[in-house]
Amino acid sequence: MGVRSESVEGEGTTIILEFPLYLSQAEKLVIDRRHEVLARAITALAASSRQDLYQVTHDVGGSIGFYTFTEESRLILDFSQWLNSGIVLNKIEVENRRQSILAILKLRLDSLLEREVDE
Amino acid sequence: MSKERILVIDDHPDVRIFVKTCLEEEGFAVIEAANGLDALRIFKEESPAILILDVSIGQPNGFEVCREIRKTSNVPIIMLTSHDQELDEVMCLAAGADDYITKPVSAQILKLRVNTQLRHSSARAEPLSMKITIGGLGLDIDNREFTIEGVPVPLTRTEFDFLELLMTKPKHVHTREQVIEAIGGSVLYSSDSLLDTHASRLRTKIKAAGGPRAIHAVRGVGYRLFE
Q1: In a domain? residue A14
Q2: Domain membership flag for residue A59
Q3: Domain range holding A63?
Q4: What is the pLDDT of residue B11?
Q5: How many domains does chain A fold into?
Q6: Bigger pLDDT: B134 vs B122
Q7: Percent residues over pLDDT 70 in chain B
Q8: How far apart are the first and last CA of chain A?
């Protein structure tokens, strides 16, 4: 912890206490692993066959949410639910939704990596 | 004092490591299993204080593992589900789970739900000497045994706690919040369908054993025993 003061003539003195940022073990884990978790999710989703797509989206959607990708998790789980809805699915529509999710995940990964480089 | 052991069962390593880290930080010793067969083996060997069990873990799945454990144990079981599986919540309770968490979940909520289950489990373990008999229904709180006209009827831990609350004050209306508290759930995260499922399962068991229609829902308020 640091303590310092700043004085301005005619205005007074400000005492500033600086506390180190405390991160729990779980928060540290999330920060350390989130980009690799997201990268693995992208690889799995991109490589999945149509037959495996429901299981892969279910697994990936369930896991990335723990690593701060809550919105992306919901998006993938909605896709997963749609895949498992029992209605006859149009192959092109399935592929379009997969590509659209992949694009979102890749953007998120790029922005994460850029931020890590800046830090 | 030895740490309480928690068995975490999930086939996804990223989920296991997150849950493990959260709970170790809380002072628990965490044991991991990646599938149902390992979970059943480790459960027998380690006697954990609580289980966190994912539904989708291959074969046997989470429901099957839960039902298997319930044959011999009342250990608290929290099941992990995903929001893409709407039926899961009801199925978790029907399989005998005490609570369920929809993935993803924050570290804070996870710890809260685990501690709540352990607190209620511990409170239930305190010695009481009480037997209640009402209208053919018998409840031996010491031995956690429920009977109808003297014939034992197996109940899950949650069902027993639900019935215990109703039988300790028959004809009194217990609010949904009181029931949730008694069964070790969280008021914030328990849905109406959770209680309705427990009530429905209890009615079915009592009816199947030749018992009376004992559990009544009071619309918009809660439940009571007998009208």
Answers
A1: no
A2: yes
A3: 23-118
A4: 92
A5: 1
A6: B134
A7: 90
A8: 21
State the nearest Cα–Cα gap between A96 and chain B, in angstroms.
20
Is it true that the peptide bond before B104 is cis, omega within 30 degrees of 0?
yes
Tell me how close the Cα of A23 comes to any Cα of chain B, in angstroms. Answer: 12
Residue A95's pLDDT is 95
**Quick check: is A74 in a domain?**
yes
Both tokens of residue A17? 């206490």
Say if the ipTM goes beyond 0.90: no
Q: What is the set of domains in chain B, with CATH numbers?
A: 5-125 (3.40.50.2300), 131-225 (1.10.10.10)
CB contact under 8 A, A33 and B82: no
Mean pLDDT of A17-22: 69
Cα distance from B108 to chain A (closest Cα, Å)?
10
DSSP A67: G
Distance of alpha carbon A30 from alpha carbon A25, whole angstroms: 9
pLDDT digits over A41-87, tens only?
999 999 999 999 999 999 999 999 999 999 999 999 999 989 988 88
Residue B31 predicted with pLDDT over 70 = yes
Q: Is the dihedral of CA B43, B46, B49, B52 positive or negative?
A: negative
pLDDT at B86: 60
Average pLDDT over residues B60-65: 94
| Residue of B14, B17, B80 to mutate when probing chain A, most A C-beta within 10 A | B14
Cβ separation of B12 and A26 shorter than 8 Å?
Answer: no
List CB contacts (< 8 A) between B82 and chain A: 58, 61-62, 77, 80
pLDDT at B185 over 70: no
Chain A hits for B22, Cβ within 8 Å: 25-26
pLDDT at A116: 72
For B84, the closest of A33, A67, A84 (CB atoms) is: A84
Residue whose tokens read 């956690």: B144
Residue A15 lies in a domain: no
Cβ burial A39-62 (10 Å sphere, 16+ → b, else e): ebbbeebeebeeeebbebbbbbbb
Alpha-carbon distance A81 to nearest alpha carbon in chain B (angstroms)? 5
